[in-house]
Design goal:
- The longest helix has 22 residues.
- A hairpin with a 2-residue loop joins strand 2 and strand 3.
- Helix content is about 60%, strand content about 10%.
- The chain is built from 6 helices and 3 strands; from the N terminus they run ααβααββαα.
- A 3-stranded antiparallel beta sheet has the order 1-3-2.
- By secondary structure, it is mostly helical.
Length: about 140
Amino acid sequence: MKSESVPSDWSALLALQRATHATLQVLAAELADLDLTPSEINALANLADGRARTVSELGAAAGTRPTTLTSVLDRLERRGHITRGTRPGDRRAVLVELTPSGQRAAATIRQAVTGLERRALAGLPDEALVALRNALNALTEVSS
């Protein structure tokens, strides 16, 4: 998705928001066969490494509050993509794990994300990619 010319004084945060919406649209089109919402795609992408996470850990990785994540996890569990259980020694901590169908969906999502990232960022030099990651990490760490 190509954008119109953007003034040089354009806000980085607004540009990030625009980029987020553009990438979500591309991913939604590429992953339409999975019939998942962007929030479900995000959750599965963050579980794609196969490591179980608590709801709090997954919420932090996905940039979502645990209370908001609960409805996403409810839908993913109903569809058979995840299971929720307790952590040994701490029954209060809910662990989220992928099922075999969740692993397949997460692998498809990760491939789409990786492909989109490669296409979008292919022309940037390594230093620019490092700077981009540093800037995104800085924005992620901003507290309210």
